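Field reference: sequence -> structure
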Amino acid sequence: MTSWPTDAPSQLWQRLSVERFSSKPLNADRRADVVVIGGGISGLTTALELKRRGRDVVLLEAATVGAGASGRANGQVIAALTRHGPETIRHQLGAKFLTLLTGAADRLFDLIDTYGIECDARRTGWLQPAHSHGRAQRGRVMAEQWAALNVPAHALSRGEMAQRIGSDAYFGGWEHKGGGHINPYAFTVGLARAAQEQGVAVHEHSPAVSLTRHGDIWLVKTPGGTVQTPRVALTTAAYTGNLWPGLRQTIVPVTSYQSATAPLGSFGENVLPGNEAFSDTRQDLRYMRKDRDGRIVSGGALAVQYLASLRLPRIIKRKLTAFHPGFANTTMTEFWGGRIAMTVDRLPHLHRTKDGLASWIGCNGRGLALACVMAEVLADAVCDVPDAQLALTPTPLSPVPLHPIVSPTARMILPYLRWQDSREV
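Structure field:
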């Protein structure tokens, strides 16, 4: 048996979404070529890819599509990893994965176009402002490495960055013109609509309560029915339970909170005038983007989560006011939060067994675009493509040391990370 933890969805993204989706729970016993467990971006894009290959696909979602991390993200489309640049990625994960990653934003926006998903997509670019001189120098190197791969990346001086973001709080940085932002909830439910239209059997309110092997077949049980299948793709990320023993011990689920201002009106014309998204270089990350009504959507983490709905918006407003004093007169009107899957090395990992079970895990806060390209990798993995031909080499499960202690207490390192940020020059 397993549990299926949930968090409250983003009411803001739901209100702004014109995409709608609902489906019935699984209430029968059936067979399928592949079962995908998890109805976020990763699961839905994997289901679409498998269906494109002619497979009969059943997708099981424990709650509702968009209720997980995919529907609660800030919505930034970033074709890069959290900490690692191209050279490190090539060394750690290989040239095939690096090539895949360079096309991650293209893949996300292609899906929007292909299936007519209405999700307020803005391909206006992504910025990484540097919070110190040293980080600005690293940003120039990062831009050069990405540009060498024909990525539209460029270093920005302090003055150029100030013009782009509407604040002189940073020391320069770099940009990726292929990025942007979306309403992540609308994108996720739009993918579900598309998957259902393509013939994927999508079942909400259908948690997989057990996964057992019987001969050459996996039996996936839900409260209302079962599915027999030779192959299973597990795409449950930070909400991974015990279906695959040991998998959830490989990641640390971290709660990421989001908060939004009221629409900024004319003042908003001075902030991110080009409508880019940005995430800075701090370890205690600062980031923001506009929604279609001119709100600024930002967020962060808390070491102590007590009264988060009251404290986090105040903290975000304080950070926004440090970014630009005009935010002192704004009101924080929205709050939500949920878990994301972090790995110790801040890299995604692909795992699979010899009997048709596969999963990738570790979005590390960059899951929107990454999930779209990992769909092809996971589909290959679950369909028995040899390891040498996969864009990401499968690795054995590697539990986080002292996971029962680290998992609930990892957020307590935040004060130390903030101290490190403050000391960078």
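Note: The chain has two domains: 11-125+178-408, 126-177.
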